[in-house]
């Protein structure tokens, strides 16, 4: 879920609630956005798995994220491949859970 699609009052609380209840948080740290870092921090406090993405050449993330792997990408196609690779273990299937 992208933050721009979250509705609620206040929307910030709804975003944090969604992050805390997520199965996985994918965060693009390319622009060093303070909002993304807040959401990553909320996910880490809630013990939600976090995967970091970044466009461009490899570089060190900010200090508090240096214990996390960063998945670098160079193009939108590369980003899509990274997201598919990262999220694959978190997929859900109705057949797998016994419901059809």
What is the CA-based Rg, rounded? 15 Å
| Topology, number of strands | 3
Summed up, the helix count is: 3
The major beta sheet can be summarized as:
3 strands, parallel
Tally of separate domains? 1
**CATH fold node name:** Rossmann fold
* H and E order: HEHEEH
Taking the alpha carbons of the first and last residues, their distance comes to: 25 Å
Mean of pLDDT: 87
CATH architecture classification name = 3-Layer(aba) Sandwich
Structural features:
alpha/beta, Rossmann fold, about 100 residues, three-stranded parallel sheet
Describe the fold and architecture.
This protein has 100 residues and is an alpha/beta fold. It has one domain (3-89): 3-Layer(aba) Sandwich (Rossmann fold). It is built from three helices and three strands. The protein has helices spanning 11-20, 34-45, 76-87, and strands at 25-28, 50-55, 70-73. Strands 1-2-3 form a three-stranded parallel sheet, sandwiched between helices. α1 (11-20) packs across α2. The chain is globular.
List the helices and strands and how they pair.
Elements: H1 11-20, E1 25-28, H2 34-45, E2 50-55, E3 70-73, H3 76-87
Parallel strand pairs: 1-2, 2-3
Helix pairs in contact: 1-2
């Amino acid at each position: 879920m992208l933050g721009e699609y979250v509705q609620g009052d206040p929307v910030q609380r709804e975003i944090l609630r969604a992050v805390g209840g997520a199965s996985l948080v994918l965060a693009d740290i390319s622009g060093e956005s303070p909002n993304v870092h807040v959401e990553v921090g909320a996910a880490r406090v809630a013990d939600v798995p976090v995967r970091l993405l970044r466009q461009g050449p490899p570089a060190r993330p900010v200090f508090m994220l240096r214990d996390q792997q960063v998945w670098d990408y160079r193009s939108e196609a590369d980003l899509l491949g990274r997201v598919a690779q990262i999220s694959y273990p978190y997929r859900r299937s109705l057949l797998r859970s016994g419901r059809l």
